[in-house]
From TrEMBL:
Name used for this protein in its record: Lipid II isoglutaminyl synthase (glutamine-hydrolyzing) subunit GatD
Protein's organism: Hydrogenibacillus schlegelii
Stored Pfam families: GATase_3
Domain of life, source organism: Bacteria
Active-site residues annotated for this sequence: 93 (nucleophile), 193
HAMAP family xref list: Lipid_II_synth_GatD
Length: 246
């Protein structure tokens, strides 16, 4: 069995080492004896996105986002087809915004999104930055998610989209409604850098399990020794709690 991961725009959308998320997914699969192929997909590349079990894209400055957005619009049909076939998508910050209807930047440019997700984004003068702690909505047990955010865009979810997490500390999607990210079927968007999956192993395995479902009915992911991952996770939870109390 081989898991195919497509990394969209690795040269253009790459802030805060977002590519580390691909490494985390690859390693967590390989440690369970699953072969992984990672393909870089750049601007102008004509690929069948439905071949991929998981597509990843990182964040970027507004200007870089514009370049990626033009290409993503050309790949729109291929992306919709892939998602319809069960491909998992993880999009961080700038690329998360591009999966929605549009992003109106702080300078008044309107970047068209692919409209895969029921959301839109408006840029604000004050950037929303700092550590984030949230509670994931995707499990039937309580689990925190941690990361770091830095965005001018305020994202608002429509009724067709549900948040990935509720904000315990930090700004999340817009600093107003207490929501962070989006989880819509197999499509996930988040403002969290970090790289987010390094400190949130349950989220990483959730994505892997969904992606493997395209290959096998009952994906089996034996537990890993995640002591370092949880240590980093809990350290951030404690640091945030400590700063709030100060
Ligand atoms: N340029 C976008 C914003 O500022 C995304 C930033 C990012 O990906 N970190 O909102």
């Amino acid at each position: 069995m081989k898991l195919k991961i497509g990394h969209l725009y690795p040269d253009v959308l790459e802030v805060y080492s977002d590519r580390g998320n691909v490494t985390v997914l690859q390693k967590r699969a390989e440690w369970r004896g699953i072969d992984v192929q990672v393909d870089r997909i750049g601007i102008g590349d004509d690929v069948n996105l439905a071949e991929y079990d998981l597509l990843f894209a990182g964040g970027g400055e507004d200007r870089e986002q514009m370049r990626a957005a033009e290409d993503l619009l050309r790949k729109r049909d291929a992306l919709l087809k892939a998602v319809a076939s069960g491909t998992v998508v993880l999009a961080i910050c700038g690329s998360y915004q591009l999966l929605g209807r549009y992003f109106e930047t702080v300078n008044g440019h309107r970047i068209e999104g692919v409209g895969l997700l029921d959301l839109y984004t408006i840029g604000g003068r004050r950037r929303l930055t700092g550590n984030v702690v949230g509670k994931l909505t995707i499990f039937d047990f309580e689990c925190t998610v941690v990361g770091y955010e830095n965005h001018s865009g305020r994202t608002y979810l429509g009724s067709g989209a549900a948040p990935l997490a509720t904000v315990v500390s930090g700004h999340g999607n817009n600093g107003e409604d207490g929501w962070e990210g989006v989880a819509q079927g197999t499509v996930f968007g988040t403002y969290l850098h970090g790289p987010v999956l390094a400190k949130n192993p349950l989220l990483a395995d959730h994505l892997l399990r969904l992606a493997l479902k395209r290959r096998t009915d009952r994906p089996h992911l034996p537990p890993l020794d995640d002591e370092w991952e949880w240590t980093a996770h809990e350290r951030l939870v404690r640091r945030v709690a400590h700063m709030e109390a100060a």
